[in-house]
Amino acid sequence: MAHKPRVLRSTHWFSNASPTGFGLRAWMKSQGFPDDLFDGRPIIGICNTWSELNPCNAGLRQLAEFVRRGIYESGGFPVEFPVLSLGETNVRPTAMLYRNLLSMDVEEAIRSNPIDGVVLLAGCDKTTPGLLMGAASCDLPTIALSAGPMLNGYFKGARLGSGTDVFRFMNMLRAGEISLQECQAAERAISRGPGTCMTMGTASSMACLTEALGLSLPSNAAIPAVDARRQVLAQLTGRRIVEMVREDVRMSHIVTRQSFENAIRVNGAIGGSTNAVLHLIALAGRMNVPLSLDDWDRIGAEVPCLVNLMPSGEFLMEDFFFAGGLPALIHELAEVIDRDTRTVNGRTLWDNSADAMVEDRRVIFPWMSPFKAAGGIAVLRGNLCPDGAIIKPSAASAALMRHTGAAVVFDGLGQLHAALDDPSSAIDEHSVVVLRNCGPRGFPGMPEVANVPIPANLWRRGIRDLVRISDGRMSGTAAGTVVLHIAPESAVGGPLALIQTGDTVTLDVPNRTLNVELSDETLLHRRTNMGPQSSAPSSGYAKLYVEHVMQSDRGADFDFLVGCRGSEPPPGAH
């Protein structure tokens, strides 16, 4: 028995039965669209974050044309539309301030327009979660396509990695180990073309997790931005989204609790970014899937790191691709992943990976002989972080995973920068450097500043790591023994606001604790005498952000955006 064709969303706009169909079709035809594109074929939105202000996404303008080609080939009608583009390189004060705004842009653009399915063109760090969060709140057929990583950087015969080596060269310059001319020569060699950071930073981590969630075609995570195979993938993505609309395969049909658990395990195996914690929790909230900070520790903390990429290791994303990419890594995780989770190509995650082979064991290690024993995210609790904090053991120093030292406290970046190169600074190799007022509300926006630079006098002595704790974030390209996302943050009266220089702080990652060695009575006395915290913005988007952003343990999403609002076409006004 033949099935009755499903009524598409776009027919509410363009159908002959619609009283406004004549005018709406006429306006669209002013762009040169022929009559037969309005014959009931699926209308596919190409949601593009291309921008010249966002070099990571510079290749998306060209990539969109290959997506368009695939949509036409499968009988769809492609319509490209722009949304906010968030580049970590140029956006101030921090791209994280605008992730939720991007998600609102995406959600409302999809819902308010005649779109039956959507291709999300993502790239730099916050564009991927922002796009996914916005699309999840609509729950249409959705497929993601990443910009792809840059080619490897090279300088004097050695690989250079985005972010990771930037931090290293800047520390060397401050310590007088290299000249400004040498630093500029490295600067010219590190970014050889468009694409995202080629280290396993947040952009690459989120591309991997998007593939692990089943929301992209296989190999999307690692194909370099300038490789012709990414253009082929774009065309295949365009073909597949039309099929997904016809099959009514929506985002909620793909992403389940099991999908999130797979993504958490993959993040451990790749030595992925700490920022992924925030983004997956926020995405799960949009999809009404229970996911907590403790799930990250319970599910992923014991997953070993199998991928030898900066910042935890030696190689870069181009090497990861040639070693087999994410399908090969999934094959190595055969014993711990849920093999039956569905993906956008209609096959299971395991079906997409069952025949994948690791081509370079220097880059992807076997499960039984991992690159590093601890690859996941450790979640800490204690009187400094009652609602949680996180640390990435694969990027930390083993000798500092249990550490007690005197706190050196900074109330913001101004204080910190003034002290870093001061020879009389109280910071030494035993210190616990505390940077506060950098959380979601306190900055606002939760910037990537928690990986406090090593003071020049310590760097010259060969000190390469310190224990640092903050309510802010750090770049996924950064490394070090850094405790992040302390919740609640200091700006809302969290215990971090009570700590003083000279207090004794104990970090114990194996036992998952972070405490200041003060009695409850002392902390209560300090709270009673605590002055006002940072003042809130009085107008504009920043005011909306501060009033509605949730704490880091809730993914720093807006409280009024949690949940799915669906894709029911709004009433027409014509």
Strand content: 5-15%
Overall tally of domains: 2
Percentage of residues assigned to helices:
25-40%
What do we call the CATH topology of the largest domain?
Rossmann fold
Uncertain stretches of 5 or more adjacent residues: none
**Whole-Å distance between the termini?**
39 Å
Q: Given this structure, which CATH class of the largest domain is correct? A: Alpha Beta
The number of strands is 14
Question: What does this entry show, briefly?
Answer:
The chain has 574 residues and is an alpha/beta fold. It has helices spanning 11-14, 21-29, 60-73, 99-111, 127-136, 164-174, 180-190, 202-212, 228-247, 251-254, 257-270, 275-286, 293-300, 317-322, 325-332, 413-420, 456-460, 520-528, 540-548; strands spanning 43-48, 77-82, 117-122, 142-146, 153-155, 158-160, 378-380, 389-391, 402-410, 432-435, 467-470, 482-483, 504-508, 513-516. The protein contains 19 helices and 14 strands.
